[in-house]
Amino acid sequence: MLDTASAVGKAPDRGDPPGPARSRRLRPGPYLLILPALAVIAVLMLWPIGQIGVMSLQKIGNRQLRGEPAENVGLEYFRTIFADPFFWQTLRHTVLFAAVAVTLTMTVGTLIGLLLNRLGRRMANLVAGGVLVAWATPPVTAAIIFSWLFGTTGGLVNWLLDRLPDALVGGGWADYNWFATPLSTYTVLTVCVVWQACPFVAVSVLAGLKSVPDELYEAARVDGSGPWRSFWTITVPLLKPIFMVLIVMSVIWDFKVFTQLFVMSGLANRDAFNLSLYAYSEAFGSLNPKLGMGSAIAVVLTLILLVVTAVYVRVMVRQGETA
Amino acid sequence: MKYTRIAATTVAIALAASACGGDKKDGADTGKDPARLKVWMMGDGTPEQTKFLDQVETEFRQKHPNTDVQVKYVPWPQVATTFQKAAAGGEGPDVTELGNTDVQSHIEQGNLLDISDQVAGWADAGKLNKTALENDKADGKTYALPWYGGVRGVWYRTDWFTKAGITPPKNWAELTAAAKKIQDAQKVPGIGVPTDQTNALLSFVWGDGGDIASKQGGKWVGQFTSPQVKDAVSYYTGLITTDKVAPEKYVGKNELQGPQTDFALGKLGMYIDGSWAYAQMKKIAPKNADKWAVFPIPAKNGGNAPALAGGSDVAVWKDTKAATAAFDYATVLNNAKNAAAWADISGFSSMRSDVRFSDPRLGVFTDIAANTKFAPISSGWGEFEQSKKVVPNMLKAIVQGKPIDDELKKADEQANTLLNP
């Protein structure tokens, strides 16, 4: 969204030839070209975001959805949220989870990307096809699979852990309830989300690696540099733009993880809520919807993500300047 | 080729757009037979239920021959969001089943049509359960009709009880002892007490003579810190923590997320569920089906603990254009003949005083149903139970070692605010 906005600002500059002879006549061509995209973005994103903003200041239930006028409550919901320790707990869960999940996604994804780059053509296709299945799995499906894997009745993970020697993993795994505490719940959630997200990172990294000339690595080898050093001095700097984009996108995705947590842990485990689930439970969790309250939480989440996006845009612009 | 495709897409989009926008309703009843009557039923809809509803439709069409009845099943976990969408988008039902603990929330949210006059004009209205009908009223107006009720009991294995020489427990001490014996003899957890099962805890609270909230001067006041509730909560969580006859693996879960399957497969001694569980368990483990039986949840010092009167009501949706036909459907659905048929098919007790089960196997549920109570009749119950999950979260925290007095106090505070919206 912001990319488009910056493109709007730049378009006339690029279009204007440097000569002073041309007047500053408005050239509608570029604007017309981006108009459809802007219109779609406005309808699908800007308008709903605006609505959420308005709703976060109003008391809205089913009656208001039917058309009864909504009562304005000003910033009451935001005051309630910020005074509530429960909000800070969900925020902490959201941030910690994103930090761990993004780190793991990037690490595992990059390793798979490097592996794919080293493999022969046929094997690389096979592995790439395999990991892409994980990426193509819908979140609900993935969540259901993982809640079965980690289930207490007939779950594969508990069965395996129970069969391993006690000296290695400790005993009592047969009935271990992964969704009883926030830490274990988020462990499962992290595995599930990373499993789904790392293929995309892998493929993107692979695409980047393909563009790095082999000569660089050869030269490094001749100079006596090992694979570890080559990775940090050649691969990382050259792929930095790709890594930056991937990290920011992963942060955004992992901040708003909802489906998997909702399916696996549900509304009954409030102690494991993240911001998305908290917003959902307020807005849609019962027959007395508090859409205003849910919107207020969503606004907070959106603002956090806008800050992340702003950092991202800044990084992109900087890279554009130096490149 | 290309142009044909574009044209086709355009037409499709236009159709979709008109389908979304063209169905504005204003709640007026034209009096004429509608072409279509939309009926929403809750749950997943068994083949038996579909067959039963087909018969109801046939009977209904004798009076409204030009009306096509369209039944849609709404799975219970999606109920809140589905009704919310119906209120927001105007694509709601004409007549719908409702969970009885949700009726007050629906009334508060303005989802239901005031049917006081129609009910007054219905000859059979006097046969409906009085307490249940009270739950369907607000400010003296009636918004729904009680349809059927369900109560829960303790499912157990007759063969295991016989082998261990146990008779169905009559009080809490015997219940713990029975669980212990089964656990020792069969090497399976004695009883399943999931923390996300408010209805079970309510029975224990009521079986100790307490209640989680009481109405004082028009306001609900939380009673969690009362000695009876504390006693019941200690007993319930103690089955897991101190008596160790219930496993920790059901913490944060409800009776369907483990206990039911485990019990059916013979991996759990006892668990609490309703008559409707029988059909589901038969699907899981048909070979064990003849070994299951039920006894009422015991009160602390003997006798049956009151059970939560769960169940469903029928209501006319506020946006309907066919209020007359919708109410006619409700009365056909709940006439004496169909109510009796439905009780036998579903295993739920009818809310009509003139209808009884014909199957003796379900007799025990009729006994249990003789002693029922309601959750606090407040429009805030929806939030208290569904989104805030006050009781489940309190139980979970206590099982996981938080001080019981703090948690009870917190629950009281939540009850005081949420039950008085």
UniProtKB/TrEMBL annotation, chain A:
**Which InterPro entries is this protein grouped with?**
MetI-like, MetI-like_sf, UgpAE/MalFG_permease
Region: Disordered; residue ranges are: 1-23
> What keywords tag this UniProt record?
Cell membrane, Membrane, Transmembrane, Transmembrane helix, Transport
Instruction: Return the PROSITE patterns for the record.
Output: ABC_TM1
Q: Which parts pass through the membrane? A: 31-49, 95-116, 123-150, 186-209, 230-253, 291-313
User: What does the UniProt entry say about where the protein is found?
Assistant: Cell membrane
Pfam families reported for this sequence: BPD_transp_1
Keyword match NAD: no
Highest taxon in the source lineage = Bacteria
Q: What range(s) does the ABC transmembrane type-1 domain occupy?
A: 91-312
Stated membrane topology is:
Multi-pass membrane protein
Q: Which cellular component terms (GO) are annotated to the entry?
A: plasma membrane
- Tell me, what is an example of a GO biological process annotation in this record? transmembrane transport
Q: What is its main location?
A: membrane
* PANTHER family xref list: BLL4140 PROTEIN, DIACETYLCHITOBIOSE UPTAKE SYSTEM PERMEASE PROTEIN DASB
Family to which this protein belongs: Belongs to the binding-protein-dependent transport system permease family.
Q: What is this protein called?
A: Inner membrane ABC transporter permease protein YcjO
Q: Which organism is it from?
A: Actinomadura rubteroloni
Q: Which gene encodes it?
A: ycjO_2
Automatic annotation (TrEMBL), chain B:
Q: Which InterPro entries match?
A: Bact_solute-bd_prot1, SBP
The lineage's top-level taxon is: Bacteria
Pfam families hit by this protein: SBP_bac_1
SUPFAM superfamilies, alphabetized: Periplasmic binding protein-like II (SSF53850)
Name the UniProt record assigns to this protein: Putative arabinose-binding protein
